[in-house]
Amino acid sequence: MFLITGVTGTTGSLVRRLLLDRGLPVRGMTRTPSRPDDVRGDFTSPDSLASALTGVTAAYLVTAPETPVPDDDLAFLAAAQAAGVRRIVRLSAIGTGEVFEGSVLAPHHHTADEALRDSGLEWTVLRPSTFATNMLRTPVYNLTDDAKHGVIDPADIAAVAVEALLGDHRGEVLTLTGPEALSVPEQAAVLREFRPVEVVDVDPATIDPSWRGGVLWARAGHSAVVTDTVERVLGRPATPFEQWARKVG
Ligand SMILES: NC(=O)c1ccc[n+]([C@@H]2O[C@H](COP(=O)([O-])OP(=O)(O)OC[C@H]3O[C@@H](n4cnc5c(N)ncnc54)[C@H](OP(=O)(O)O)[C@@H]3O)[C@@H](O)[C@H]2O)c1
């Protein structure tokens, strides 16, 4: 049995669909179940995690805390160990653990990734760049000026996650990007070919300090990274932004 956390979210919903397409047994974890194959689970409720994880072999772990603390991940890992889960694939973020201007980037992801690595479970950590789907927000808040990102189609992240859930890439940290680095204004220009996009520039001084480090890291050019990991894992190129835009337009 595969447990998909974040199953109502951007990548979890796609991971579920891909596993079902392969005829594999899937349980989706959400705080508000609405499908027969959903189970109620809340990272802040250990009892619900124990119940959601019963009989699970491999889990896709997505956390999205409002404040950057690793508590949700640590609670899930403890419950997974107690339930005898064999393998976890965790969604982290590009740049996690790098030191920039004296601070560790994404410390909550860093702590959770390290805890998973030290858990004794089989593990894979996915560190994607900016999701293309961020451009579907209304408006799009541009935190990073003209800085470029190896923007990635979340469907590519989900496809890599499935390979990892099936047991490939154990003990690997996979930095995932699209095939080209584009700034938010450049992404907006492409997406406007297919649908309207409103972009609002944000002064980084106004960003919550707990999230600002990653923004300044990107503005300094460090997110302009393109890897071949998606192609290496999937045996086909990562999806170009223009192709993703055509799909959602
Ligand atoms: N967006 C990007 O560009 C980007 C880039 C790199 C990495 N990431 C990482 O991707 C991750 C996902 O972020 P996202 O914003 O795209 O979120 P998302 O996966 O679209 O949605 C968040 C999911 O978390 C679930 N959830 C929230 N609180 C929960 C709780 N207390 N217990 C159980 N489930 C809970 C929600 O399920 P229910 O509401 O149904 O319970 C929802 O399915 C984050 O860790 C982020 O750092 C994002």
From TrEMBL:
Pfam families named in the record: NAD_binding_10 (PF13460)
Domain NAD(P)-binding: start-end pairs: 6-165
Protein name per the record: Uncharacterized protein YbjT (DUF2867 family)
Organism of this sequence: Saccharothrix variisporea
